[in-house]
Amino acid sequence: MIAEQNNETLSHISDQYARVFKDSTTQAAPRTFRSPGRINLIGEHTDYNHGFVLPASVDKAVYFVIAPREDDQVLLHAVDLNEDYQFSLNDLSKPSQTWAVYQLSIIEQIHKKGLKIKGFQAAFGGDVPLGAGLSSSAALECCLLFALNEVFELGLDRFEIVKMAQKAENEYVGVQCGIMDQFASTFGQEASVIRLDCRSLDYAYFPFPMEEYRLVLCDTQVKHSLADSAYNTRRQECEQGVATLREFDPNIASLRDVSPELVAQHRDKLGEAVYMRCKYITEEIKRVEEGCQDLVDGDLKSFGRKMYETHQGLQHEYLVSCPELDFLVDQTLSMPEVLGARMMGGGFGGCTINLVAVNHIEAFEAKMKDAYRQAFNIDLPCYKVRITEGTNEVM
Ligand code: ADP
Ligand code: MG
């Protein structure tokens, strides 16, 4: 039994499974699997620079209630949307339901690995907000693959599941995500963050106590169109920085190999824009490592200050923030109950992540909602999250 499943959500999905498949000839009893959404505490835009990230899995999850069939048919019911989709394992053409791309992408990876499954029927849904930056897509992919691995005894370990789920999103869905989302959803642990080395994929857990402080996400509800073009430009600028710095040290393969001091030393040669980008990245990679030391020391105040530093860097040096995100972070600066706040994710919209004293959370949310409405005339959804264990079977 796990502590953090949302029983109401789960029993609703089970009920819907029973309703939708009541006439099914399938004999097998359904099993239930859970994959959580994820947050990233610190380490933003460091992944493609081969640095560190610090994600964790949270108490909002996708659930699959699933049973194997004797034929080659896959019958899916999306509980939250009340939509169905059926396909044959032998026909993986793009589906008419957009959400089914995630399931098909997983089947395709299973085929590509040369693994054999039969058809199955499943009802799925959950409480990870869609498109809000908690990576509901990764939760969906990891949950189905983990479930199929158990139901059909495919023999995959968690690491293989993560890599296949990432490839599924890259190849079939067509989103060039890194590995962090699937990794966090699959490897998360209760009250711990994961320091993931995006170069070696080595990882380590650090304690993140949840007794006195909670994490609250504030969703700006905006997504500025700059996001994609700026992402590509930033990647190019980082590559340019590496190319320039390699002239001084041929061992440099990525900004991971560069210290903030080296960046400062070659400021003129880098040019102001590339210098600013490299400064942020090299400092951020260092910040993740120092933040982990804060957690070992039990110093959440110091950790929170680093969240603010990250935001400053993203706002003024990496230039991927936006007025809505900056506003939300600025609001917290005068709130002693908030230890840290920053934009989370690629930028130009999405959520801020806030480290807030437990007994001030309701007041915090009320103040933030009020201020955001006054400034932007937008309702501000807030999500309280606890760090809980990663993907598992619900018994
Ligand atoms: P994010 O991963 O940031 O939440 P994405 O756009 O990558 O946002 O993935 C969201 C998509 O995943 C949704 O549009 C939907 O197709 C699918 N999805 C996620 N969770 C569910 C769910 N509970 N029910 C149906 N579809 C879902
Ligand atoms: Mg996604």
UniProtKB/TrEMBL annotation:
GO MF assignments: ATP binding; galactokinase activity; metal ion binding
Membrane-spanning parts: none
A single BP term in Gene Ontology: galactose metabolic process
GO cellular component: cytosol
Keyword set, alphabetical order: ATP-binding, Carbohydrate metabolism, Cytoplasm, Galactose metabolism, Kinase, Magnesium, Metal-binding, Nucleotide-binding, Transferase
Ranges for domain GHMP kinase N-terminal: 107-189
Annotated EC: 2.7.1.6
UniProt-listed InterPro entries: Galactokinase, Galactokinase_CS, GalKase_N, GHMP_kinase_C_dom, GHMP_kinase_C_sf, GHMP_kinase_N_dom, GHMP_knse_ATP-bd_CS, Mevalonate/galactokinase
GHMP kinase C-terminal domain residues: 294-356
Residue span(s) of domain Galactokinase N-terminal: 23-68
Entry similarity comment: Belongs to the GHMP kinase family. GalK subfamily.
Record-linked PANTHER family: GALACTOKINASE-RELATED, MEVALONATE KINASE/GALACTOKINASE
Protein name: Galactokinase
Species of origin: Dyadobacter jejuensis
Lineage, opening ranks: Bacteria, Pseudomonadati, Bacteroidota, Cytophagia, Cytophagales
